[in-house]
From TrEMBL:
It holds the Pfam family Bac_DNA_binding. The lineage of its organism: Bacteria, Pseudomonadati, Pseudomonadota, Alphaproteobacteria, Hyphomicrobiales. This is Viral histone-like protein. It is found in: Virion. Belongs to the bacterial histone-like protein family.
Length: 99
């Protein structure tokens, strides 16, 4: 299995590809994440052109319910879950086509 690229490796690759300092690239990357978080909180969506669209999905609360453990077959009770927000990333068409 391939290893995941770290933040410092990403900064280094972008800096080399664009002949910029790592410090400048790190600043841009941090600004992008800060703006993204603010937009998600304010509007519920954030688009990174050519990459992905991030969307906040509101999950409603669920009640406790009875069910069966699929591994043992024993009856059990599933706990109630509070309402929550989840962030989903949806790749844009260009990203899908690149893979």
């Amino acid at each position: 299995m391939a290893t995941q690229m770290t933040k410092s490796q990403l900064i280094e690759k972008i800096a080399e590809a664009n002949e910029l300092s790592k410090r400048d690239v790190k600043g841009v990357l941090e600004s992008l994440t800060t703006i993204g978080y603010k937009e998600l909180k304010k509007n519920g969506t954030f688009l990174v052109p050519g990459f992905a669209k991030f969307v906040v999905i509101k999950k409603p609360a669920t009640k406790a319910r009875k069910g069966t453990n699929p591994f043992t077959g024993e009856p059990m009770t599933f706990k109630a879950k509070p309402a929550r927000k989840i962030v989903r990333a949806r790749p844009v068409k260009a990203a899908k086509d690149a893979v």
